Structure formats: structure tokens, C-alpha cells
Amino acid sequence: MKILEVCFSPMIGGGELYCLNTSRQLQERGHDIFLWMTSGSPATDHPLVQGMRVQISPAPGYFNPIFTWKAIQFVKDQGIDLIHFHRSANIAAFAAIRNVPLVLTQHIASNRPKKDLFHRWVYGRLNLMLAITPQVRDCAWKALPISQEKISVLPYGIDADNLLARRGDPVQTRRSLNLPEDALVIGLVGRLDPPKGQAVLLKAFATLCHQNLQLYLLLVGGTDQHSRGYDHYLENLARELGIAERVRFTGFQADTAPFHACLDLFVLASDEETFGLVLLEAMAQGKPIIATNAGGVTGIIQDGVNGLLIAPRDELALAQALTRMIEDENLRRRLAEAGAKSVREKYTLSRHLGRLEKHFTELIQR
């Protein structure tokens, strides 16, 4: 199959990384993949893009006749069989293309109605929407002008073996971060952004670390154009709380596997999380999880079974969950084992790609 993967996003997060990973994996499975990305996005410099066929241009917006004409010519010249979108805002620029199936992977849940004439035309051009969770699917049913038979649920998947192969030496990673080998390290991996809850975690951590000299906190991630300056805010907050010497900031990391590997406990503190791919990455590495019961997280984490769930923005609840985990090594081990089992049984990359290829093949043949 010749597939055009389209993602005109100015930032890099879970959806963008999914696009890059999927493109790379489909190419390795023998398909001809073309990536079309927006200029200025950090995703264009990601290591996963190396060796890929990439088109880079300014984001076209909703209506850009010149871009649409170029897109039509590109699809015709390259013999593209199918176009796969990762942002709904990008569909309109390609909607005039005929005889090529259009597929959207819906990465976020939105209840904002879009049933005006323009959106009826745009979504009418879609052949298939792949929702990453049942919640995303249900929101699409209610808010978007798309029939139910055109929506299918396809959860993310990860390559756990590849992840483990990239983990490196956790002891060496700790040394590079000036973390004691015998420390208990709590970590949050994700973009530095207020809704991701890093400030809540810092405050909860501050109530514990003065009582336990072996506790350290690792925050992995950088800011983007929407959250510039938030890293400095967090660093100042750590100083104000008197915990700066116990907190490590790594900045943006293209490969987070070594940082997951050096953790003892993983926290997802987001206000809202449609899926939480980073959860699967931590679980695959055998890390016990504390996560907020926000959005699609509850489809992955069962409270007390393969992780602990707390309410978003609740510093006290997070501090209590951290204390429970820190004091009970058996609990950490049990939840970590159950989490790794969940990934192996439900969220493998091979299963995900197989279903994706099946959808694509059926649409092209149809």
C-alpha cells in the first residue's frame, strides 16, 4: 500500500508520536509511506523521521485552494492509495481529492458540536474514523456529522520488546542525573504543561520528601509554544517548596525509555488524558502506576488491580497514594506485574498494526 500520513501539528505530543511511530512501523512492514508535516514543528526533527519520505510545508488551514491543488497533484503523481489523518483540522485541505480513501485517527474526545454545513461536507468525505477509546467514539457519535458505521475503536499499541531493548543501564542513567543508586525515584514523563499536573505532583511530593531522605522526583519533558515559561515556573516552585535538590528536570527527550527504566514509581497527574500512551510505556517496563481517573485512563488502569487511581488536581489524594506505594513494596510489585500483563494481553503493537492494515486494505479494495 502507498499511504500518505498527514499531521500538520505545530507541537509534538502523544498523537504526533503515534503518527511517527505508525509511519515507521508500516514502512518496516513493507508499505510505501509518505509523511506530510508542517514546517517549524519539532516533530520534523524527531529521530523517527530519519529515512522517511517527508513533505514539509506551512499548515494549509481549512481553506487553501493553492495547497489543495498541490495535494491533488501529489497524490496523483505518487499513486497514493489512502490518506491517513491525525488531526481533524487537516481533512478539509484534502477533502476535494476523489477516489482515494480518507481515514482519521481521532486522538482526543471532544463534545463540541460540529454539524454545520461545512463540517457535514468535511466529515462526509471521511471513509473511516478510528477512535482510540470507546469514550472518544461516543463523543464523536454525539458531536460530529458522521454515521456510526464509519467509526471503529482501535486502541494504541506499543512494541514492548523494542522499548525494553532501548532502556539502557538504569544505574548509569541515574548517575547521569545525579540520582543516588539506592534512592526511590518517582517520575512523570510528558510535556511540561499545566494540564499535565507537574505542579500538583511537586506539591504532593514536597509533603513527603522531608520525611524520607531517599525520595527523589524526575520530571521528563519540555515545553512547547503553548506552554513556554512553564519549565521556569516549575523550577521556581521546587525552590519555593524547598525541594529543588530532590527534583531533576531533563528537558525534552526524544527517547524516554532509559528514563522510564530508572524509575521506581510512575505518576500520571493529568487533568484530562484521552488515552495515556505514556502509561503503556511505563507499564511495559514493569513500573507501578498512580494515575488520575481522567478520560481514557480508566480504560487502561483498574484501581487496585494494575495501578492506583486518584482524582485530578487533588494534592492530598496524590500524597496519600504516594505514601501507600512507598510504604508497601509488595503492592508496588503486584501492581507492576499486573500492569505489564495488561500490556502484553491488550496493547501490543503487532495487534494494533494488524487491525490498522486490515482497515486500510478493506477500504482500498472497496
What does this protein look like?
This protein has 366 residues and is α/β, with parallel strands linked by helices. 39% of the residues lie in helices and 16% in strands. It is built from 13 helices and 13 strands. The strands form two sheets. Strands 3-2-1-4-5-6-7 form a seven-stranded parallel sheet, with helices on both faces. It has a six-stranded parallel sheet with strand order 10-9-8-11-12-13, with helices on both faces. Helix 1 (14-28) links the parallel strand 1 and strand 2 (32-38). Helix 7 crosses helix 11 (315-327). The longest helix is centred in the C-terminal third of the chain and has 18 residues, at 329-346. The radius of gyration is 21 Å and the shape is elongated.
List its traits:
366 residues; Rossmann fold; single chain; six-stranded parallel β-sheet; 2 domains; seven-stranded parallel β-sheet
Q: Strands, helices and their partners?
A:
Elements: E1 2-7, H1 14-28, E2 32-38, E3 53-57, H2 65-78, E4 82-85, E5 102-106, H3 117-124, E6 128-131, H4 134-143, E7 151-153, H5 160-165, H6 170-176, E8 184-189, H7 198-209, E9 215-220, H8 230-240, E10 247-249, H9 257-261, E11 265-268, H10 277-284, E12 289-292, E13 308-310, H11 315-327, H12 329-346, H13 349-365
Parallel strand pairs: 1-2, 1-4, 2-3, 4-5, 5-6, 6-7, 8-9, 8-11, 9-10, 11-12, 12-13
Helix pairs in contact: 7-11
